Amino acid sequence: MKRSLFIMLLPAIAALAACGSEISTPATPPGQPPITAVVQTVQPEPISEHYTTTGTLIADERVDIAARVMGFIHTIHVKEGQRVTKGQLLLTIDPTETQTQVSEAQARQSQAQARYAEAEADYQRFKALFEQQLVAIDHFRKIELAYRLAGQELHAAQSLADRSQVQLDYTSIRAPVSGIVVGKYKEAGDMATPGTPLLTVENTRQIMVRTYVKEDRIRDITLGDNVELEVEAARLHGHGTVTQVVPSGDPVTFSYLVKITPESTTGLSPGMFARVIFTTGSSAALTIPQTALVHRADLTGVYSIDRDNIAHYRMVRTGRSIDDRIEVLSGITAGDRIIVHSTLPIHSGDRIEAQPPASKSMPAAAGR
User: Fold this and answer.
1) Cβ count within 10 A of residue 181
2) Cα dihedral sign for 302, 305, 310, 316?
3) Domains, the chain, ranges and CATH?
4) Helix H segments across 91-233?
5) pLDDT band at 13, cuts 50/70/90?
6) What is the H or E stretch that residue 329 is in?
7) DSSP 8-state class, residue 334
8) Rounded to 5 degrees, what are φ and ψ at 367?
9) Most Cβ neighbours (<10 Å): which of 151, 176, 253, 352?
């Protein structure tokens, strides 16, 4: 029984011996030429440090439209979602009462105008008589005073008529900006009161990203900074510029409002979710090409070569992806030579004929 068990264990022992020989002895048979491979020396590279926040697309020009006179809403000429142009009629308030006030003011103005004309005629006539010393000075002074009072009365009547006309103009509410009607809060027949919003218009051509930055990061962000923007709903992966940093933070969330203007607003709409990626500095890190990684089951490693150009498999721990490169946190150090590419499979112990890379791939941006 023991002899049979020993015979069964012989193949397993032989296999283990073979595995151990791959690591400890060269895999390239004697007399065979070495394997040609592209080899790169690992050196620290400066990479950008990033800080990512989430935000919302907003219309930078958003206007809540309210009435300036009280009255019943006669007609609403627009609907939600409708695009309007600056100066377009949006809403009409019943002008009946205001028109009556205008008529009364105009009548008073006409009466004041007539009295002023009569007083002016008397003044000019008595002035000539006074200069000829044909009337007493006291009588002339009374005519002059009546003339001045008539002028003041006419001025007050004109002002009242102008104000009444302005009030009448306020019954026709027009768009202060071009944009889209995004809010409608009243219906025809409702009472409009001064200061109460009736409609909201957004200028969708001036879209910005509103985000909030933590207090320990706000010092790294300044006006004019270029940032990366990602808006999945619009399939946008572009850039923007920091155009506003509010220096006063929220005492509840301890965050600061930052606004970014996108380079392109194609496909963007207010309310969309956005991701903002700020560049906050740079640091040195070991990066290698993605092609240098070798995956064995759940292990990740690289092939390094020693002074004798013999390949050795070394496990590594990776970090951020940087375009076509990847950060290595442990497993190799600066100055190590690693195999980036080879035309034949590499095994530990293979002799390598090292060739330099044709062009060095430099990291463009750090991962997130």
Assistant:
1) 20
2) negative
3) 51-61+203-281 (2.40.30.170), 95-170 (1.10.287)
4) 96-131, 137-169
5) very low
6) strand 325-330
7) T
8) -75, 175
9) 352
